[in-house]
């Protein structure tokens, strides 16, 4: 089974581990910690401090993808301006133009990771605009399911 080393703070992939690599999880985690400590000492970026604080995990690639999806697609939709919505609509040809009740939505053609991309929505009743990351393969993450009625 192929394993990956993940920085848990942001569910960020640090390294792929070959099936032939027989190093222990503890060794792989120590390697990741050393790298991030070096980066923190070099740049002083608090992002590295958060990563070191939350630690690392070794898991299957499939488990990582599930954790990444959960991390990216569960934030509350962010309210945006009409101008931001229009800009996103016009930057690239949109995909998945939908209307569900009073919600009109579309997704960005450019994907963040795998099947995860930004979705934009307009609630025609409240005249509010929203965005969030969604998994286009899982409609339960789509904005029309996440915007409060």
Topology, please?
Blueprint: E1 3-7, E2 12-17, H1 25-43, H2 46-54, E3 56-60, H3 61-72, E4 78-80, H4 82-91, E5 95-100, E6 103-113, E7 116-123, E8 128-135
Antiparallel strand pairs: 1-2, 1-3, 4-8, 5-6, 6-7, 7-8
Helix pairs in contact: 1-2
Characterize the structure shown:
With 149 residues, the protein is of the alpha+beta class. It folds into 2 domains: 3-72, no CATH class; 78-145. The chain has helices at residues 25-43, 46-54, 61-72, 82-91, and strands at residues 3-7, 12-17, 56-60, 78-80, 95-100, 103-113, 116-123, 128-135. The chain has a 5-stranded antiparallel beta sheet with strand order 4-8-7-6-5. A hairpin with a 4-residue loop joins strand 1 (3-7) and strand 2. It is elongated and about 55 Å long. The model has no long low-confidence stretch (mean pLDDT 91).
User: In one word, what is the shape?
Assistant: elongated
Strand content: 25-35%
DSSP helical segment count:
4
Number of domains: 2
Please state the structural category. Answer: alpha+beta
Summarize the amount of helix as a percent range.
25-40%
Oligomer: single chain
| Gyration radius, rounded | 19 Å
Biggest sheet, spatial arrangement of strands: 4-8-7-6-5
Number of strands: 8
Order of helical and strand elements: EEHHEHEHEEEE
Largest sheet: 5 strands, antiparallel
Mean pLDDT: 91
């Amino acid at each position: 089974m192929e394993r990956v080393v993940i920085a848990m703070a942001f569910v960020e992939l640090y390294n792929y581990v070959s099936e032939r690599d027989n190093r222990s999880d503890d060794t792989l985690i120590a390697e990741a910690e050393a790298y991030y400590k070096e980066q923190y000492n070099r740049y002083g970026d608090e992002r590295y401090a958060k990563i070191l604080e939350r630690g690392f995990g070794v898991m299957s690639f499939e488990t990582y993808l599930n954790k990444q999806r959960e991390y990216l697609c569960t934030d509350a939709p962010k309210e945006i301006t009409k101008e931001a919505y229009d800009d996103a609509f016009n930057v690239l040809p949109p995909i998945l133009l939908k209307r569900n009740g009073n919600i009109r939505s579309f997704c960005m053609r450019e994907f963040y990771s795998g099947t995860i991309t930004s979705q934009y929505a307009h609630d025609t009743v409240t005249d509010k605009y929203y965005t969030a990351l969604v998994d286009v393969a899982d409609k339960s993450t789509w904005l029309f399911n996440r915007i409060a009625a």
